[in-house]
């Protein structure tokens, strides 16, 4: 049953039967129906159909049913099908004489069920004037078009019912682009709104408004937005959706200015865009005045002027951006604008809004891709700046560590000299010069391989052992899984902790079993370095440190670790105690990401 109904809906001819009609125009709106009927010779279709309509003229249309009298006698109710005029009055014969009924879009509030076909005007065979005519009084105030494009016909009750309440497969295919376009617009609107709420960037605001006005303007008929917002298709509703055309262009201009940052990158284009934006604001205000005073011919010419300006500017702008483009962002604007303009020309010359829908859809998607590309490039640039800032910060921190270490080493050499220990001083100076050379050679890099770091630690420990008469022993243990020649760590990141363990932990210990153990373990995502000493512990060391300066090298190293790992949980200090709760040293665990 359902399939038969669908087949019937698809197979029936929904087109109306065309009617012959003659037209008479007058600039004076004082002509009455009696005057018209007194002299039907005023109607002329041959010459008048070559003319274009004008808002200041009133058009009388004589519809002739002479060739269809037999057909309409077969049914009691028929429907007159014609274009939607802003002002339309139908004159027909009744038992009480001539009657008039208004069906203009600005006058008649009945809502069409179909989004594709306007509701027909009902009439009966006995309503024909002189058993032959119906007469229309029309005013085309919203548009200027060719009278030759007017199509007037009649349809049966069955055809009217099908066109108003049911859609054929062809109808659905015709409407599909509009609904796809609407879905894309709604998604882009809310996505852009979210981005704007998050970033407060102007290009997202104007793109969001651009998409919104496009949706309102291009789909106002399909979704009956005139009735949704204003209750009917009146002058106010018409004014709003007509002015939205210029709002589309204004949002487009403002979007381009902020998207391309024309104030900096395209200074000449910026001046032109700014001038166009001011012009559009002026035209919008002027158009509102035209509608307020019902000067619709002014609106029509103003809209044509605006369309001409935007078309010329669009073409010149695309050529200029193609020629002067400083980055890929300009190509998104050029390609998107090209598709939109192509769609607009398709609507203008082929009178099919689907070309405009297709062009606008492609433009919206291309502009959205352009915004995504811009965000991605800015994010990459931000990362580059952050990496450069971190490198510079690490260089500054290393510059603080190296003088600290060199000062301590030179103090040790001075100690040998004052003790008249020439052999020790020369031996120490030889090791110090090699270590200094290695540090200077590596100073241009923020990170070095672990094997080089271990060599410098070995040299440093040898110097410190020599400096303190080999009063402590040390050992470096590297786990087998640690790839010393692959893993990279910040240079001299461990040295201040080793120095701290020697100076404050081991040297203050009275017994001779002073041992420092350094271990390296691979923990898959980070390198674990353990500095373990059997010194006096931190609590006892505080007594010796009371009258000494705070270790600047240790502070700087902690800051370097935070910078490197982006975390505050990279250093763990453990106080070691024996069974009698006596301090037996300190263990420092350092986690270094790689």
List the helices and strands and how they pair.
Blueprint: H1 2-11, E1 17-18, E2 20-26, H2 33-38, E3 58-64, H3 69-72, E4 78-81, E5 87-94, E6 97-102, E7 121-123, E8 133-139, E9 153-156, H4 157-165, H5 169-199, H6 202-218, H7 225-230, H8 235-259, H9 262-265, H10 267-292, H11 296-324, H12 329-350, H13 353-418, H14 422-442, E10 447-449, H15 450-467, E11 473-478, E12 488-490, H16 495-506, E13 515-522, E14 526-533, H17 538-545, H18 552-565, E15 571-577, E16 583-593
Parallel strand pairs: 11-13
Antiparallel strand pairs: 1-9, 2-3, 3-8, 4-7, 4-9, 5-6, 5-8, 10-12, 13-14, 14-16, 15-16
Total number of strands: 16
Low-confidence stretches: 1-12
Query: What proportion strand?
Result: 15-25%
- Identify the strand order in the major beta sheet: 2-3-8-5-6
Structure described in brief:
This protein has helices spanning 2-11, 33-38, 69-72, 157-165, 169-199, 202-218, 225-230, 235-259, 262-265, 267-292, 296-324, 329-350, 353-418, 422-442, 450-467, 495-506, 538-545, 552-565, and strands spanning 17-18, 20-26, 58-64, 78-81, 87-94, 97-102, 121-123, 133-139, 153-156, 447-449, 473-478, 488-490, 515-522, 526-533, 571-577, 583-593.
């Amino acid at each position: 049953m359902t399939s038969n109904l669908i087949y019937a809906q698809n197979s029936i001819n929904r087109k109306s039967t065309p009617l012959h009609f003659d037209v008479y125009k007058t600039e004076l709106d004082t002509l009455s129906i009696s005057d018209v009927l007194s002299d039907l010779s005023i109607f002329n279709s041959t010459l008048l159909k070559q003319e274009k309509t004008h808002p200041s003229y009133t058009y009388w249309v004589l519809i002739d049913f002479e060739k269809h009298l037999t057909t309409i006698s077969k049914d009691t109710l028929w429907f007159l099908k014609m274009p939607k005029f802003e002002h339309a009055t139908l004159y027909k014969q009744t038992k009480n004489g001539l009657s008039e009924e208004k069906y203009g879009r600005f006058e008649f509030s009945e809502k069409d069920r179909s989004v594709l076909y306007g509701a027909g005007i009902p009439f009966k065979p006995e309503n024909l004037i002189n058993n032959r005519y119906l007469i229309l009084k029309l005013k085309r105030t919203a548009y200027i078009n060719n009278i030759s494009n007017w199509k007037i016909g009649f349809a049966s009750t069955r055809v009217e019912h099908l066109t108003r309440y049911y859609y054929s497969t062809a109808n659905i295919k015709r409407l599909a682009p509009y609904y796809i376009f609407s879905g894309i617009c709604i998604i882009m609107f809310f996505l852009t709104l979210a981005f704007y709420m998050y970033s407060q960037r102007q290009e997202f605001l104007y793109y969001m408004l651009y998409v919104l006005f496009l949706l309102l303007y291009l789909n106002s008929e399909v979704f009956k937005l005139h009735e949704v917002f204003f209750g009917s298709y009146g002058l106010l509703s018409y004014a709003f959706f007509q002015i939205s055309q210029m709002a589309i262009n204004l949002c487009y201009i403002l979007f381009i200015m902020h998207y391309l940052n024309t104030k900096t990158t395209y200074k000449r284009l910026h001046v032109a865009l700014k001038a166009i934006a001011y012009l559009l604001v002026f035209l919008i205000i002027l158009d509102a005045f035209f509608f307020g005073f019902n000067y619709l011919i002014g609106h029509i010419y103003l809209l044509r002027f605006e369309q001409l300006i935007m078309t010329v500017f669009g073409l010149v702008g695309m050529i200029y951006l193609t020629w002067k483009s400083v980055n890929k962002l300009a190509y998104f604007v050029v390609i998107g604008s090209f598709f939109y303009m192509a769609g607009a020309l398709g609507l203008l010359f082929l009178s099919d809004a689907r070309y405009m829908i297709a062009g606008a859809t492609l433009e919206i998607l291309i502009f959205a891709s352009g915004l995504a590309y811009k965000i991605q490039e800015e994010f990459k640039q931000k990362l580059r700046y952050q990496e450069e800032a971190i490198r510079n910060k690490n260089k500054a921190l290393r510059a603080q560590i190296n003088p600290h270490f060199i000062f301590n080493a030179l103090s040790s050499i001075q100690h040998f000299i004052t003790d008249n220990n020439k052999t020790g001083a020369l031996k120490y100076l030889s090791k110090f010069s090699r270590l200094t050379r290695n540090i200077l050679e590596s100073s241009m890099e923020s990170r070095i391989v672990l094997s080089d770091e271990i060599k410098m630690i070995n040299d440093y420990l040898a110097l410190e052992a020599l400096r303190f008469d080999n009063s402590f022993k040390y050992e470096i243990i590297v786990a087998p899984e640690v790839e010393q020649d692959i893993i990279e760590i910040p240079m001299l990141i461990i040295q201040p902790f080793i120095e701290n363990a020697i100076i404050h932990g081991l040297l203050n210990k009275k017994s001779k079993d002073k041992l420092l153990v350094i271990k390296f373990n691979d923990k898959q995502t980070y390198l674990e370095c353990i500095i373990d000493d059997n010194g006096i512990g931190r609590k006892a060391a505080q007594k010796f440190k009371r009258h000494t300066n705070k270790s600047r090298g240790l502070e700087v190293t902690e800051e370097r670790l935070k910078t490197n790992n982006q975390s505050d949980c990279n250093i763990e200090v453990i106080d070691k105690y024996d069974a009698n709760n006596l301090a037996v040293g300190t263990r420092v665990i350092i986690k270094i990401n790689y």
